[in-house]
Amino acid sequence: WNVLLSFSGLVALIQLLFLPFFPESPPYLLLQKGDKAGCLKAMKQLWGEGNYHTEFDDMMKEKAITKGTKIMNVLEVLKEPSVYPQLSTMFLLLLSLQLCGLNIFRTANLQESIIPYVSLGVAISELTSIIFCSSIIDRFGRRILLWGGYLLMALILVLLETSLLLSDQFFWMRYCSVIIIFLFIIAYGIGP
Prior knowledge:
Elements: H1 2-18, H2 26-32, H3 36-47, H4 53-66, H5 74-79, H6 84-96, H7 102-107, H8 115-140, H9 142-166, H10 173-190
């Protein structure tokens, strides 16, 4: 467990260190921010020197098409019948996640009788992070959410490892481990 948790934290740390050196997504810069110069600069930085007028024109056409389109909030999306297949797929994935994570909770020495409730809490944490992320992604952009998410995940993994190590000495640390796992899932869902 210790090696597996450390490996996830190491990967998150590496991604966190390299993220500031990557440019924003060209479509995000053009469509969301309206930054034409930044979009062209990001294209050159991502794809090298070249003529990207065709791609830029395609994005401009997309911008013109979506100009009159209203950006919907979470409740409006849930009321839209055309997204029901995608929402049902996400819902099934969340339900299937009920079966994972049981070993983590056993490692934390939780009673078998409360593990299903903790798994339900995991699913609720994921659902919360999905709703929260979809509400703030347009405001902050992916880069900030990725960076903040990876930073939070790295810190939370340190706390989780500490709480798992101390769970044999302090009974209440078992429950702290569960709360920390919920926080990790929320940080992952908001960021990466």
